[in-house]
Write a structure and sequence with these properties.
Helices cover 21% and strands 19% of the residues. With 256 residues, the chain is an alpha/beta fold. The chain binds 2-acetamido-2-deoxy-beta-D-glucopyranose (NAG) (7 copies).
Length: 256
């Protein structure tokens, strides 16, 4: 016997998928402009009037300050608005900038949660949102951005446990989650991040680490140094003082 309601459901589902794919297909530079205007609309502080005057519909979006476009696809490929004393929250429409490769919002006063819609931006290679006031958890969906090479979330107010999904980022070279309110164990999956060269974890509330001062200073140390960090062979030691350097080298010896 044919189950009509499940056929109908299937039909509606495929219709939904068709409409959804059509919507993706028709994204263009107008979508990007709309997304950036939505982004601008949630900016509550712009003391130097940088975006308020410049990001205007009377000029082409690719000429807006901090915005560059990819000539081949004619879509926005980077948004770099560091150090402009901008404040406000981040619009989920950011997730519509589907050709974005570089996102640099560092050294501003952006706050609230970082939108999980970022998971749609599969081309992203660089995210820097350091030195802002973001709060809440680090979005788990960051682990879906498989092309990421640089992820800088330091000096914010992120809390909770860092998501295990971060370990999916096999191309990541630099991970900085220092100076937040993160706690719990350091994700074991970090041992799978074979491209990692820099790891900044200091000034958080991580547990399970004892004596490492280098990247890990000022945490709630009370156990053994996690074995998984020892497997990160390419990890380089940043220039801090000599004693800390020694500790770093010693601890980060690869164990085969
Ligand atoms: C973008 O697509 C919309 C339809 O989805 C269209 O109206 C608009 O003119 C297009 N913009 C450009 C710049 O091609
Ligand atoms: C916006 O800023 C860019 C870069 O500084 C400049 O080239 C452009 O002319 C400005 N546009 C307007 C409308 O002010
Ligand atoms: C862009 O993103 C927002 C929020 O994620 C959504 O509501 C909107 O429909 C999206 N699409 C376009 C074409 O702006
Ligand atoms: C972000 O922009 C600032 C200011 O231009 C720059 O110093 C910093 O290196 C950039 N971050 C990344 C990860 O490119
Ligand atoms: C971080 O969060 C704490 C507690 O919620 C709050 O007191 C503090 O002002 C926040 N700091 C920043 C920089 O947002
Ligand atoms: C590392 O990746 C492998 C292969 O995907 C997986 O089986 C393993 O569980 C991962 N290890 C950790 C600690 O996540
Ligand atoms: C360690 O962190 C705590 C709380 O974040 C802070 O009060 C203290 O001054 C820090 N200690 C050092 C040596 O920076």
């Amino acid at each position: 016997m044919v189950n009509l309601s499940s056929c109908l459901l299937l039909f509606l589902l495929s219709l939904h998928c068709f409409v959804a794919s059509l919507a993706t297909y028709t994204k263009n530079i107008t979508t990007d402009q709309y997304a950036l205007l939505a982004f601008k609309s949630l900016i509550t502080s712009d003391p130097y009037d940088i975006l308020s005057n410049n990001w205007s519909t009377t000029s082409y979006v690719c000429s807006w300050v901090g915005v560059t476009c990819d000539e081949r696809h004619n879509r926005v490929n980077s948004l770099k608005i560091s150090n402009m004393r901008l404040g406000g929250t981040i619009s989920p429409n950011l997730g519509n900038l589907s050709f974005l490769v570089i996102l640099n919002l560092s050294h501003n006063s952006f706050s609230g949660q970082f939108p999980k819609e970022i998971y749609r931006l599969h081309r992203l290679k660089v995210i820097s949102i350091s030195f802002n006031e973001f709060e809440g958890g680090i979005p788990e969906v960051l682990g879906d951005l498989s092309r990421l090479q640089i992820l800088k979330l330091g000096a914010n107010n992120f809390s909770g446990f860092p998501p295990q999904s971060i370990g999916n980022l096999r191309q990541l070279k630099s991970l900085d989650i220092s100076q937040n309110m993160l706690s719990g164990p350091i994700p074991q999956t970090i041992s799978n991040m074979s491209s990692l060269e820099y790891l900044g974890l200091q000034y958080n509330y991580f547990s399970g680490i004892r004596f490492v001062k280098l990247y890990l200073k000022n945490n709630s140390f009370n156990g053994q140094f996690p074995k998984e960090l020892c497997r990160l062979r390419r990890l380089k030691v940043p220039h801090i003082n000599y004693n800390e350097f020694e500790v770093g080298i010693h601890v980060l010896q690869p164990q085969i």
